[in-house]
Amino acid sequence: MKMLMASDKEQLVSASAAKDNQKYYCPICKEELILKRGNINAPHFAHFKNSQCVIAMEDGESNEHLIGKEQLLNFIDKRNTHVEKYLSEINQRPDLMYQKLAFEFQCSPISRKRLAERIAGYHKLHMKSLWILGSNYRKRFGSDSVNKFYYYIDSIGFTIFFWLVNERKIEMRYNCQYVGGKIRYQRITFARLDELLRFIHNPGTIVKYKSSMHDVISQLTRIENQLFYRNKQMLKWQNVCYNQHHNMSGSPIICDIKQVTSPIMGKNFLIWKILIVASIKERVKLRDVFKFANQMVGLQTNYPLVHNATQYIKDEFKLLIMQLITKRKIQIKNGRVHIIDEIKWFDDYYQKLNELSTQNNTIF
User: Fold this and answer.
1) What is the number of other CB atoms lying within 10 angstroms of the CB of residue 176?
2) What are the Competence protein CoiA-like N-terminal domain coordinates in residue numbering (predicted)?
3) Which tens digits make up the pLDDT trace of 199-227?
């Protein structure tokens, strides 16, 4: 494991400021370290081979991670920030620590389970953690591997952080929502932590995303195309509709009314609603419909940095059910569905498209 800081037995010294003829030691195990400098990798300390130190046995760091940590040190407050401080109570070592806030610059893959464990460790010490993602995560923005790092901040909504090594700035993508199955967000960068904190308290204009008929038709066309090209996942969902004598491309218009949703619902929000409506039949248990749709779409509920993430899914479910009740399509008695009136499905993509062409934006 590469380290940015080491001890000269009097104080901690950064690798970039270390002298070649000086001896340096690990602050944890007290073993002597090797100072490494080169034209490619950032300056760093390393343990000798076969060291049994807990740090030495951790996964190696990329050059981006080393450089980013040093840049983040200046971003936060160099005088009052601890680098790679080992927290023995939880056996964790945050990249940086400022007051009661741990900074983690995450460049390598990490499972949801491990991420949740790390965050829980900081909570045990009454600490919060800010997870900042590297370039590989940034390239995959919108994927499940990135989504687990979402925060929900009252003033700016769903937010995710990236570190831009070339700019020496943090990038904040905020007000992240899905509209018509596509991610929308606002973006801003900061060179200093205090600038970021001021913005969170006073963010200015927060865009209110709106649904449009274009979004509805685009999603409908995307479903039709994936069915035409025999997309395996789409065919699996289509079979659910077929089993109830319906065509997915002819889904009820009630599924299209709400197009804007949270990243927790994600790009398959419309599919999820179609599966719910397709599963509604006389005396079916509402909780079974909810569970089935969640499983079929593969909705994640483990968002370690979002309080009660499951509630966002429950709220969307309640809203759709209330729309069906309001339109007098169903009643709910003792947790079971009772059909009042038929929910209209279309025969195919073209029949629904023809109906939508007469609606303009009146469905919203």
Assistant:
1) 23
2) 15-55
3) 999 999 999 999 899 999 999 999 999 99
